Structures
1.
Amino acid sequence: MIYLYQGVALLEINELKQIVEALLIATPEPLTEARFHTCLGDSGSKIPLQEVIRELASDYEKSGRAFFIKEVAGGYQIVTNAEFESYIKGLFSKSGKLRLSQAALETLAIVSYKQPVTRNDIESIRGVSSDSSLRTLLDRKLLEIRGREDSPGRALLYRTSTEFLQYFGLNSVKDLPRLREVEDILAEDDNELV
Amino acid sequence: MIYLYQGVALLEINELKQIVEALLIATPEPLTEARFHTCLGDSGSKIPLQEVIRELASDYEKSGRAFFIKEVAGGYQIVTNAEFESYIKGLFSKSGKLRLSQAALETLAIVSYKQPVTRNDIESIRGVSSDSSLRTLLDRKLLEIRGREDSPGRALLYRTSTEFLQYFGLNSVKDLPRLREVEDILAEDDNELV
Amino acid sequence: MKNQLHRIDLEMFEGPLDLLLFLIKRDELNIYDIPIAQITKDFLDYVDLAKELKLYSAGDFVLMAATLMKIKARMLLPIEANGDDEIEDPRTELMNMLLEYKRYKEATSTFSEMERFERPHYYHIPATWNPQQEDNTAILEDVKLYDIMLTFQYLIKNYEEPATHSVAVEEVTLSEQVGFLNGLLQAKAKLSFAGLLEKFESRLVVVVTFLAILEMLRNRQVKVKQSKLFDDLFISRGSTFGN
């Protein structure tokens, strides 16, 4: 099948399927009809994405691929078949890399630079409750509780763990990069030839 | 072909190929042999990932897939074929990948051969301030801060990241071509003069 | 005619070493035996032109210019025997720096090629994996020390009352700094450049002061001494000082 536009052959269906496949593999978010047409430019304006997706999906099913095309959030995405979930879990267990939510990262950053700190200190900087991020970070052994504040409230004090230091190759908390040290790097204007 | 372990059939090759395919689709970082065995648990300890990858790669080629399996950063990842670049660009707001400036590439070259290095090490070789290149490279995660120098100044140390290996398609920094020796450069210059 | 530099040349150098390598190659000079007077002149012409075109603030180039002039001055002195028979060529250190830089500059072109080769390939980005109950907060791919630092900086900036310290724009001109140095040299026979640096808050003032020194050096109002490349510079009165 060949797609025609004003009598001119545009793209052959097999070529189209390959293009859509490449887009599905590379896209950081679900591939929408609109985005698809941006990618194809003028030649794609008359081609319905849905039709190509349908053909591609049936190919995947017939050839026993371990993934399928899922319609999600107004677009399409490649996801793995449910039966492989038990194996995929292993990719995320005890992963060498930290995977943290933005909230957890913020909490970790505050504890790193301000330790020892109380939950109150953290929350007054972030402006939101930080209970669940503290729990996540304690669970992952990135933070630990070390004693209590020396004031009437006797609030718990949080600080970073040895595991945290090891992960980043630091000998001690004093070795964290200080803001002043990288200020030059962070300065917007510089004198370098770019 | 069936994989046997102590006389017991473990997994049929087609099933294995599907599992590896699912892992490749789901992994956010290169799939290493070690991670593969974590995912498979006991049943996978005798199965060489490399062999399954080879079979899968040849399937992809034969069936005209728009992607292939790349050996990178000590593992395997799915990558799109070069011919689809012009379409894929449209997925990203800055129309595809930004190229690194000459200054950033120089800085990267120095870090990759001499790591871990301080900013001073870099600047004394380049003879110019390298703040903005360092910033670009940290922002793009091609470099990372890794601890401090073990000397009085305690300067921050920089080294290349996994993203660096992915960006340049390298399996390890050991794969970089050897740096030319000063003597070779001089010998060549002498020849030019003749 | 060959010494004429065109604008197109000006934008392609990564720094003073890169420019020197270019001059050496263009004029087919021997890196073992660099004609220092000639290369210093060409180098200064370039720096002047770059300044005129305001291509960048010339700090690193000015520093190299001072170094070249220092080597040039030392070449004019009778050769001093260093210890027994070893005779130290004042150009040795510069040559070593140039060669070391050249190694990495060559490697840079390899990186450039690898980048070009990898450019058309895109890595598969997996859909976020959500095993049943998982919360849907944004998952960061992987966290680096740099992210922790930036995050803290961002939070603390928003947290603290914006400090209302006025930023005084320092207007410094070359002639002001020439006058300033003249004044100091009236009082003191020798100035340390590092010592001067401590007096200045901004990089701009440092650079302008350096340019002033360079200017005075060319008019022979001052002499500049440096014992080693990138060591401190010592400024003293020159033959036309006070004229």
2.
Amino acid sequence: MAGVAMNLRDSDSDAAFRAELRGWLAEALPGFPPDRPGEDDWQGRREYDTAWQRTLFEAGYAGIAWSEEVGGRGATPTEQLIFLEEAEKAGAPYVGVNFVGLLHAGPTLYAEASVEQKAAHLPRILRGDEVWCQGFSEPSAGSDLASLRTRAIRDGDEYVINGSKIWTSHAQVADYCEMLVRTDPDASKHRGISWLIVPMATAGIDVRPLKTIVGGSEFSEVFLDNVRVPVANRVGDENDGWRVAMVTFSFERGTAFVGEMLQSMQLVRDLAQVAKKVTRGSATAWDDAGLRREIGHLSAGLDALWALTKRNVSQASRNGVPGVGGSVFKLHYSETRHRLGELTMRVLDRASLSMLDVSGLRSGKHVEGHLHAISISIAAGTSQIQRNIVAERVLGLPKDR
Amino acid sequence: MAGVAMNLRDSDSDAAFRAELRGWLAEALPGFPPDRPGEDDWQGRREYDTAWQRTLFEAGYAGIAWSEEVGGRGATPTEQLIFLEEAEKAGAPYVGVNFVGLLHAGPTLYAEASVEQKAAHLPRILRGDEVWCQGFSEPSAGSDLASLRTRAIRDGDEYVINGSKIWTSHAQVADYCEMLVRTDPDASKHRGISWLIVPMATAGIDVRPLKTIVGGSEFSEVFLDNVRVPVANRVGDENDGWRVAMVTFSFERGTAFVGEMLQSMQLVRDLAQVAKKVTRGSATAWDDAGLRREIGHLSAGLDALWALTKRNVSQASRNGVPGVGGSVFKLHYSETRHRLGELTMRVLDRASLSMLDVSGLRSGKHVEGHLHAISISIAAGTSQIQRNIVAERVLGLPKDR
Amino acid sequence: MDFELSGDQVDLQEGMRKLCEGRFPMETVRELEASDGVDRALWSELVDAGVFTLRAPEADGGVGLGSAESVLVFEELGRACVPGPLVASEIAASNEVVGIVERARGPVVIEYWNVLDRLLVLESNGIAEVDPASVVAARSEHPVDPLTPIWIAERLPTGVQVGDGELASRVRLNGALLTAAIQLGLSEAVLDVAVAYAKERQQFDRPIGSFQAVKHMLADMLVRTEVARAAVYAAGVTIDDPSVGDVDRAVSAAKITAGDAAVKNGKAAIQVHGGMGFTWEVDAHLYLKRAWALDTAFGSPDFHSELLATRL
Amino acid sequence: MDFELSGDQVDLQEGMRKLCEGRFPMETVRELEASDGVDRALWSELVDAGVFTLRAPEADGGVGLGSAESVLVFEELGRACVPGPLVASEIAASNEVVGIVERARGPVVIEYWNVLDRLLVLESNGIAEVDPASVVAARSEHPVDPLTPIWIAERLPTGVQVGDGELASRVRLNGALLTAAIQLGLSEAVLDVAVAYAKERQQFDRPIGSFQAVKHMLADMLVRTEVARAAVYAAGVTIDDPSVGDVDRAVSAAKITAGDAAVKNGKAAIQVHGGMGFTWEVDAHLYLKRAWALDTAFGSPDFHSELLATRL
């Protein structure tokens, strides 16, 4: 039965991959600076993240999920999960500024770009030589992304772009932007969009940091004023950009939230420790049966989500295409993180007023985690949109629009 | 300041009314049989409830909110609240089978019926001589009440009715039914409805008990097979029945849930007592800080709802017309009762498996209360419909249909 | 790692589903109220299908499969809303009808007492067997679940020790696992019922399933079901192969999430049905009531949350 | 009973609203971050309006009104998201800037420490006054609410006893009441902001407020607000006239329901705003953060729930 039936054990090859990776991480990490440069040092962060990417590349771990023909490892979704799990556990640097290149623009280029375009970008992304950002969302096109209005008008061999983009991470230090622009304003909204490679050094691009409710400027707005981009930078046909952009979503293999998940599980364990230090009446918050039980209940939810991650990855391994497992995961994960945030405030009581640790109590990251939770039910498809997706695509309920 | 500013004190006249009523209840109740006949004894219940109604009538407390010209007391909404509060506190019988006559059909007749129709019914309703039931809902017309399909075809001086009604309380023992029927199938759905007085003794009416999830048969289905009713029994114009039916809703003066509210508050107090008796580990459920706190939290919700009831009644007193206070109340009350039900199961643990008391523990009514709670978010407008009402009428959001 | 069902497992699941559809359609389940939840002929069919001996070694006449498989089987029993002391009988690996209760300081609620062949009592440090006929128990005329008839015993006889503390712990663990599997099945079934109704029921000239409020309730039901499925399957796999995780923790997470899904889905399904959902005739309430009856079996969500907290 | 505002009360409410709209538009409120929440000139305007002496007897230079009126005034301060130690200063009936803290076994969080003229410490059996300058406190560079700057003191000096246990109880009660009134105002204001956005923001060629999912979130916000309003007004009236109910119970119900409304409405408003709600520029987060900061002031919801339970 073993080996064929449903199981959570590493296969022999997965076990070998995990062991090799763990060994390599144990050797590589001590030589790598432990602290990523701070919030305002974008250039420092670019250097840090790309240095780690080059280290991965040299060890053969870059582009875990990319096919071998473009220099990736061609790993299975399960190996990708193992990679993310071991990297997180070992405290390895995050993908950081390489995120869009490795997980979004790169896969799109791989699937849809010309031979020249691939050759120009894919190896550089893998080596950490090239950083990408994403220009999809606009202030007036959020849930309804296809209503985007940034215009690109053809002028000979060039597109002239005017408009603005929002929620662009790493725009300050990116070399290229994968950008959706409207090339036919008269077509129905999904039909008049094109997908462009926009060099961020082009004249007319203005990047302004966007302050979030957490306080930092993780994202930017990008303003485009007569930005000229060669027509040769288009990927796919003119006006076929919506389809091109959608291709990448099918690249998601259930691993999108692995790092977050493991961090959340750590957050709950740490909250239990914090609860043991917070005074409550004549005892501690941990001595309160109600609070303790709610921490346990949250932990159950996260354990279930971790199991669901493994189901989603197993499905992706078998079928190659993602189900709606991602939407199901994200809905429950959002709700769980909101509940964790609320519980955090109750456990911390007065210490919840500070986003920094309060006199020795390691409370700060828990409060910040609550603020972060608020973005989870919004970013990459609000919970309302996700529920529509689940209801219509899985349950077959009639479309509402 | 006192007397003019916002206050919760009885005015002199209200205090006098309360004292007089309390005195009367203290005298009248001991002479009245304490136990209402059981579930299957419809005739016994009719006799019990109408006997109490006659007692009220003779003491001048019948039709508290009805105008004096039709034999009522012409009381203010506040006096109505006081009446319900004192009756509940004294353990007086409920309105029972007189409900539809006193609170729904009667007020409609008073507002819309002819002089003859009023004379024929109103005094008899007040005295407890006449029992009414309601025939509005149909199996296929629930939230969308105006889509009702029970047909009434005119044949000379009579309407011939075919169709069926559902959720009809007291149909077994009612003398009359206030019934909405479709008289013009070609008109738009709200425009082809008429409001009829249907004598329940008419040939072709078949009443079948409808078992609910609580187990009893509080409601019935009413099947109508060529039921002939004089045209003279129509109230209002032909095809104007929707408006006629809506008139009664404006009769609601914020007191619809007073009895339920007071019972719910008692339920929470009793749950606290039960919790003190349920063993949990080496102590009791009440010793569990989490459960105790949730009981306190629920109690806060009910206290707030009781205050909201008083606000709604005060508004009705001032303006004569109801606001959407009723929808706001019902939404929160539904949610609170659902939460109370869930908490009940947690407090009772294994005793929650029985709807009857478990060896001396007075748990049965709490479990039954949980089943009842399920109906609260459905009956008289589901929570989904109520949210639409609140969003559209109070917040002015665009209609969805 | 391959957390998808194997071909054999899919066959087992489908076979069980067909058996339940054939033998336990909802009309039959409703009729079982008259025989206090257990009809000996139908019970024999479950026995013959190996439901109660699936995990027993082949040498002992069992099927020799694992907990992962028994979870799939019990999920189907839940989906079909099959009543009876299913979990206890499987744990006893018995073809008889077996009940299991926890000894308590106060009165004990015994399910299906009058159809039990055997009764096992979980003690703080072992398991005792008690002759059901020796127990003095009073019937509750109104059990919350009409298909989970209950009796209340003020006290239980001492009985004969038949297992040690370690076995008692294993019984509790497996009891929670299989109960969670039934709860998972209930969650799925009641979701199916609600979705079918939402597609068919018209109000305001549209199927009610086209209204976002209804749609989103149903989406949330699916989410709860899939989260529970992941937890329940993981718990089954972990019992079979403890090297992949903390067994107690996996089982508690399964019991909590599946209990949550079954109860909340039951309530949501009734709400989706509107007034019709409040009628005895519509099935939704039967799933909810079973979910309630199972919620406290082999540890309530509160109990398992406390357990999980202590393992953090 | 007349639980509607009197004409005078409506005038008071409207006057206060106009004052706040004029002096504390959101641009100004945001700018107050630079002066740690309190600008002396603006504070004087509140002093002149009698905000802090509304309930003080006329003989003492106060306005001589009741708690019902102070609730209306503080509701408006909440609606305008006015920062500063408003509640403590009212309770001290002082024109100075006053802080109140609970002495605790561990470190104490002091709000607005560097702008305080006076600091009162609630003890288990009385009130002490402490010179703010004598307190050693470290600033948190990242308070959760940018307009509620905080300092952490490892310990508080003993101070001078200025009130007995009964006065301390009264202070706690009134502190909870006025905090609840601010929370009520926050709930309303953030609902208004969300409703306005839902009407204006178009997605899928419709205002998002026409989608049931958004509509129902907003309806729930209104429900929470109105439930809180009833509880908060009732608590104010009950403090003025204890014959109409249990004062402690009424205040706890107000603090719980208003806290719940403020926090949940804050979160819901951000969700309604989608991505824009996650930007610093949109006001929604400022209401939520204030709601969080006030949630633990004068007793958390957990604290008041426990209190209420003991009074059942």
3.
Amino acid sequence: MKKLINAVEDIVPEMLEGLVRAHPDRLRKLEGHNVIVRKDAPVKGKVGLVSGGGSGHEPAHAGYVGPGMLDAGVAGEVFTSPTPDPVFEAVKAVDGGRGVLLVIKNYTGDVMNFQLAGEMAAAEGIEVASVVVNDDVAVQDSLYTTGRRGVAGTVFVHKIAGARAAAGGSLQEVKQAAEHVIANVRSMGMALSPCTVPAAGKPGFELGEDEIEIGIGIHGEPGVQKGKLMPADAIVDMMLDRILADIDYTGRETALMVNGMGATPLMELYVTTRAAHRRLDREGVRVYRTYVGNYMTSLEMAGFSLTLLRLDDDLKKLLDAPADTPAFKQS
Amino acid sequence: MKKLINAVEDIVPEMLEGLVRAHPDRLRKLEGHNVIVRKDAPVKGKVGLVSGGGSGHEPAHAGYVGPGMLDAGVAGEVFTSPTPDPVFEAVKAVDGGRGVLLVIKNYTGDVMNFQLAGEMAAAEGIEVASVVVNDDVAVQDSLYTTGRRGVAGTVFVHKIAGARAAAGGSLQEVKQAAEHVIANVRSMGMALSPCTVPAAGKPGFELGEDEIEIGIGIHGEPGVQKGKLMPADAIVDMMLDRILADIDYTGRETALMVNGMGATPLMELYVTTRAAHRRLDREGVRVYRTYVGNYMTSLEMAGFSLTLLRLDDDLKKLLDAPADTPAFKQS
Amino acid sequence: MDTAERLDGARLWRMVERMAARVAERRAELTELDQPIGDGDHGINLHRGFQAVLAKREALSGQAPGAILKGVAMTLLSTVGGASGPLYGTFFLRMAAAAGDAPSLDAAGLVRAFEAGLAGVKERGKAEPGDKTMVDAWTPAVAAMRERLAAGGGLAEVLAAGAAAAEAGAQATRPMVARRGRASYLGERSAGHQDPGATSSAIILRAMSEVAAEAPAS
Amino acid sequence: MDTAERLDGARLWRMVERMAARVAERRAELTELDQPIGDGDHGINLHRGFQAVLAKREALSGQAPGAILKGVAMTLLSTVGGASGPLYGTFFLRMAAAAGDAPSLDAAGLVRAFEAGLAGVKERGKAEPGDKTMVDAWTPAVAAMRERLAAGGGLAEVLAAGAAAAEAGAQATRPMVARRGRASYLGERSAGHQDPGATSSAIILRAMSEVAAEAPAS
Ligand SMILES: Nc1ncnc2c1ncn2[C@@H]1O[C@H](COP(=O)(O)OP(=O)(O)O)[C@@H](O)[C@H]1O
Ligand SMILES: Nc1ncnc2c1ncn2[C@@H]1O[C@H](COP(=O)(O)OP(=O)(O)O)[C@@H](O)[C@H]1O
Ligand SMILES: [Mg+2]
Ligand SMILES: [Mg+2]
Ligand SMILES: [Mg+2]
Ligand SMILES: [Mg+2]
């Protein structure tokens, strides 16, 4: 395992210290907790937005803390949901008197830990609501299972719920905006190579020189199936097949996110961006905005995910709103 | 070789198509050339800024095309300087009547090809000036050799010359601003792993599981020496030793860039950011702004570089100026 | 066979220390089980949690069983994270509630506490037997303990029966297709791998059984 | 030995085609030489350039030597890129100037053209012999050709002498520490590797020599 780290157990706090040192005028860390909040938190009269999860998905989630997006990002150990305590601390730190929305990715651990934190906050009289993001079409959706994972579509939830909160929306309205995104956002990912959880010291799976993992999540786990390496255009087609079959995008304006898993060169992300645009053109899906980059990563995994958010006028307005965070800037 | 590509020979144009498709309102590609220009080029009355080089350094250089930075980015084949023709086309496309500055990284090929293009443009009556960036302290500077390479410090040249041009500076003033950066910017890089030029199909060098390359450039070449894997803090110290010994930063405000080589997780970049800040604190060097991310990459190389730009009031003002490009946004 | 034998705080604390030791020894194995069907952190998570529990030795080791169990629960809850953190937290919290503030538990009381713990895990995680989770270790374990208790078994025998059943239960998760937790994302690909959480549950119960089988110290 | 033998356009074009063929065959080797001390693209670059030259067959093959050399120069200049593009471009451009618009060159004229090419490369790239560049192939090659010419050698002999000297010159770059081009960044680490550009220069000259040694076609 080759990583730019010091001691394995210090990675998360050291990373957060680096983030705050890079943005000392914007961010601060809650003393004793792996929580990054807006420097000016709590913002009086604004609904607070808290998200988080295991670390290793950088810039998610602390990189999305700032005006127009999150008020706090809670960082668990690598690929491990944070415990309830830091989430609770985050809620207390960002509550500006109009309640706090928790944006949770749909993993058993995240859901349980965040909800416990919500119960703790409610017990202290803070109004808390939560949404669970489950945009990953690679996983079969079913009442009898854990259901779909939350992946890169979560960034659109942050953006749009954040814009509604910044515009003065109530907790109910902010939650509705988030749910509106969740109903309209779908993603799928693939990997060219695995990643190594630092404390584990070895990769999560192995792949042959001509093999890929299709339908991966964001925790270095294997995908729903192995496949042979194909041209980028064919990979994109296969992924879009799944997304487009899930909800109907025809004739609709959409936002497209081409998300690198951490070790994918931007060059390759743009090659896949081209392929996605060409396919969407053929399908009559109009791309309203395109985001290309490392938005929701899996350590040093090579690969990418595609996310499509179906838009309407309300979502477009909120998507277009400004945001100014370390990893997502729009004016 | 596992890459998200179609045919090896189509990578560069396909990548540029993807970039333009992602930013159709901001960018356009010159027909028949691997050149990206501002959609509104030429900007009347503004000095034009052209940079470029081999591909594989994305987002450099086309990702820095936009208000406040470049007017055109010229993309050669992977790690191969573009030929004079596309540079000449770029100059013609962005000349707004006040001349064009070429920002060249110090590589034999880049210097020769860009200067040939400049001669072609001059022959057509376009006023052209050029600067050569050589910020890499890993390489011995000497009159009898090619001298130092241009690496990530080039992005600061784009930013600051771009700001001067946006503020209405003359060609001479824009060139001076660029030279002012070049005199004050120093970088050094290291790699945890090599990268593979697509057409070559195999990595540029090999490294053992506990080895690193120190003093690498940005073309997948081996560094000036091999070393043993060390903790991030020790690696940062070793790199800063070299940079701080080269010019005196003591008591000066500086801009810090922590640049990923393409496959380095942001998590690790923030760990090194922390280390760099702590060391600079101890040295009495005040960090005025910090930039962390993939700014000047080497395909899928893992590793990073540190760049320090020594500031004065003029450089601070230009650094603070807004920029709005796909890969560098500041408001 | 001493059916009147009771589990007091001191002995329970030794069991907790044994759990921590066994988890520490086998954490790499637990993490390796979590790689093919999860995210490769289960051993790391649980080890972190039990190390935090050990750090509370001074506050907890002299307490009654209920207080120890509650301390273990709250510590795991606030240090393990992931899915197993709230689940083990809930498990021990429900055990603590069942233990109340009695200075010691007899075998029947201990089995009732395990029953409460299992009910808590099922409630919090919504998993049923066959879903390929820790429930597949605890369900047969609790059944076996109940049976051995009914047959007149003492603490050590009951725990030995529970540990053996938990181990068999963990092994039986191998062919299952996961329906809960991370492994469920793999669908059919989850079959053929033993569940890490069921395995750690068996390790925990085996640690208790080991201590119960030893001569009480001092 | 026919000292009056002349190189006309048709034969020069066959030489150009042979250069393209030999570069195509040996491009992987050239790229591999460029990996340890460069950026691993030299064979790719040069191959791309010579393929573009081949595509100009119709326009160029019927021309006089000067026009062919100029066409080769401009094509390499606008398709090779990197350091070798402008350098080979300059080399052939200066050869073209020396050839002028004569319908054919004798051995003396050809050697003068090589001299002009070498001077152009040195001017553009500022490299001297010993800097571990293509100059280390062309310098001994030109000297050897001049010598053989003075000894009364014809085209084929002159080119054979030049090719052998270029090959020796390329091999002699191995121990050198680079002072120009990318390899210079490596400092002492550049020693022990043969220079790719010197090697491609020898390949190019050997291709010409091969064609000169063959019976002129039709
Ligand atoms: N819904 C659930 N009910 C019961 N146990 C579960 C459930 N979800 C997960 N588990 C258990 O948790 C274990 C994984 O724990 P761990 O790896 O620490 O957390 P995570 O899956 O969040 O990384 C699984 O092996 C399984 O036994
Ligand atoms: N200044 C120079 N003068 C002469 N030849 C040079 C000079 N710089 C580089 N070269 C030659 O160019 C070759 C490298 O060409 P190539 O790999 O195509 O370009 P690049 O170095 O830009 O990748 C070197 O092996 C060397 O022979
Ligand atoms: Mg986990
Ligand atoms: Mg090159
Ligand atoms: Mg796990
Ligand atoms: Mg090269």
